[in-house]
Amino acid sequence: MLDFDIKIEGHLELFLKDLKEEMKELSYLDSKKAEVGIFGNKDERTDGKSNADIGFYHEYGRGVPRRSFLEVPADEFQVAVLDKLTLKTIEVNKEFLSKLASMFLDRVKEEFETNGHGSWRPLSKSTKRKYNQDRDQLLRDSRQLYKSLGKRVVNK
Known about the structure:
elongated, 2 strands, two-stranded antiparallel ribbon
């Protein structure tokens, strides 16, 4: 019985040592974060509206059908990429956070190219008439919202 306890303690010490090293790398995340979205410097549009407002209306379906280009892709990105990462294979630093943000930004832009992978509700006939649109490409009439998307790594 004593041998068993000693073996457990030995494994526990190794586990705690590994955990401490991983936590040291993760401590970088205490001070930094990666962001993807519409930032103030890219918010203005030529029509006097705000890209942030237009993005909000579509992201959450305020007055228009919901066409999520951030929240839904973020959930899918987490399952596809983040949940598969192991701390043993990465170094958590600014470059890593920037790369993750770039990967997610590419995923967000893919939403625009594919109309939410076919999940976005098409424009109604009245909306097409109102905006004189005959295309079925959503949220890309002027590409201003699309071009306003960006990424950055900032202090928390």
